[in-house]
Design goal:
By secondary structure, the protein is α+β, with helices and mostly antiparallel strands. It is about 45% helix and about 10% strand. The strands form 2 sheets. Strands 4-3-5-6 form a 4-stranded mixed beta sheet.
Length: about 240
Amino acid sequence: MSVQRPDPEHDAAELRQATERLIDAVSALPPTGVAEPSRLAGWTRGHVLTHLSRHADSLVNLLIWARTGEEVPQYASGESRDRDIEDGAGRPLAEQLDDLRISAARLATAIEETPPQCWASQVVMRSGHVIAAAEIPYARLMEIYFHHVDLGIGYTCEHFPVPFSVRELAAVIDDLSGHEGVAAVRLHDTDSGEKWVIGAALEPDLTVSGARHALLAWVTGRSDGQDLGVQPDVPLPVLPPLG
């Protein structure tokens, strides 16, 4: 499975659609829904929504870096990032929605205003991972899709567009392949019949089979794998959290 090259124009178009779906879904919540637990341990839906708003702002920072060549960190610090999320989590739904819309619009404008020659500029994510600016729209798209799931409002990995599931599964498998700290597992996509190996072993003893969306949900920590087949019949290993 090959990892797809970034296409910022295509990714930005899909990002607009995914953001609209997310905002429409959040708009349908009752006022009390924002304070209810999300699927992320220790976070309410308000935490997830505030994180999405501040994440949009953080990517604007990286696009400024790409356009100007002057280093602008994604976040001022890890502490300030965490504090902003905590401080904003308790806001009422209407305020969360306004913030989500406005921050998404700022990011969309920053993407549109990035000259084509700047997409090759390198920037540094908060994790320390160096990426080309061309990867930023897709980085945001991942956040929108997966955190839509994390809100726990009926949207699951099964709802992802197939091209996104194919692309993201390829990216995650690429990260986990040959990794000494990952349990050796053969993944079998029953949708396509494709098989891949994660972990360091060339011929793992354990095979995990299922639909593409179910495999993606498990390897990204959005599922406990109950809808996957395991041979031999042993508990699924614990995979490392995505960084």
